[in-house]
Amino acid sequence: MIEPLHISFEVDCPVEHAFDTWTSRIDDWWPADHTVSNDSTSTILLEREVGGRLYERTTDGSEFDWGRITQWDPPTDFGYTWHLRRDAADATDVMISFRPTRNRRTRVDIVHSGWERLGEGGQDWRDRNRGGWNTLLPHFVAASERNHSWQQEPRTTRGSS
Asked: What mean pLDDT do residues 109-118 have?
């Protein structure tokens, strides 16, 4: 078995906002260099239900499937199969959880597994995907932390009444 990737980080926003940024506003932050077409005008879509598609649509109407939603439990957990630029039979598994922390921040935990399905090249794909996550996630963090209505609500801090 090839060890799953485990990635954890925090974003400065509530759980509901972080979940919504990933699932409803994915097209706002997903970079073109992490797509099949490498086209900055493509649309990234995530169908928000078990069995729903995660896919890319280009301006000419071409669609490229990236995976299927396997778990849907808003606003805390969702998962999907992942096969960007690969056959669906070679899909790996991604599970993402969103948990509240202090001061309305959110801890995001990602477990990316199933590398053994890729045969001898599985370890290499795992290692390459670590780099992919490292370049993708700053886009998500920036989109999650942009000024939105939730930031206008008063925050409580230690020692305040």
From this structure: 96
